[in-house]
Amino acid sequence: MENEEIPEFLSPKEEIVYWRELAKRLKQSYQEARDELIEFQEGSRELEAELETQLVQAEQRNRDLLSDNQRLKCEVESLK
């Protein structure tokens, strides 16, 4: 649309129709892009929440494993 040349019009009515159609197409394009952006943002928020939950779970699992490791090291030392 940016590179679209403006035609020569034979009448004011023809020019009005041209500009209205162009405005209609641009508005539709804008609305589609806006809808895609909103959908992307919602998906991103959902993904971020899911990843945050997974991170919290992984951190807890890591703490549990470190604790188990320390406990087992102490147990090994006591058996020596």
From TrEMBL:
Sections of the chain in a coiled coil: 23-75
The keyword Nuclease appears for this protein: no
Gene Ontology terms, MF aspect: microtubule binding
InterPro entries per UniProt: NUDE
Signal sequence residues: none
Keywords, in A-Z order: Coiled coil
Keyword Coiled coil set for record: yes
Similarity comment text for this entry: Belongs to the nudE family.
Protein name from the UniProt record: Nuclear distribution protein nudE-like 1
Native source organism of the sequence: Xenopus tropicalis (Western clawed frog)
Lineage of origin: Eukaryota, Metazoa, Chordata, Craniata, Vertebrata
